Protein: P-type E1-E2 ATPase
Organism: Micromonospora olivasterospora
Amino acid sequence: MVTGDLPATAEQVARVVGVDDLLARCAPAEKVARVRDESRRAVTVMVGDGVNDAPALAEAHVGVAMGATGASASADVADAVLTVDRLDRLADVVEIARYARRIASQSAVVGMGLAVVAMGFAAAGRLPPVAGAFLQEGIDVVVIVNALRALRGGLRRADVPPAQEEEAENEEEAEDEEEAEDHYSPRG
């Protein structure tokens, strides 16, 4: 983890996220150099939330901006933007991407496999051209229907769905704001 934050804050976040390599109080140039070095060794994901993170986000294989309170410069150069400032959503994004990729690969393999089998029958004279055309349309429909499974999202968590979770958070924040207004109200 490379951050411009103070060491105490950085250590706290690193502990929660499960990071064992930590570099705090980094200047933007140091972040870029570190991301560049890591990118030579492996696929690198950089998560940032401010203008100072934009160069490092651009340097990483995958740049992710935390967009709820972050600067637009980081969102502009990022490959993905999380609209809530919660790192657990990044794990959700990775899980959804893996799920979608797995479905896309399955669809491609199944579609091409069925088409090759159909072409074999056609080449052997066992499948007339018109029947082959209709069969190809059927294969396309099967592959498309399979690909539509990606719309389910692929999250395996059994907790509250993200939309309901965010609504609950927003309601809690509104209640907290109302309590604060009541407590500090000039009325009483």
About this structure: The chain has seven helices and three strands. The domain at 7-86 is CATH 3.40.50.1000 (Rossmann fold). The beta strands are 45-48, 62-66, 80-82. The CA atoms of residues 90 and 135 lie 41 Å apart.
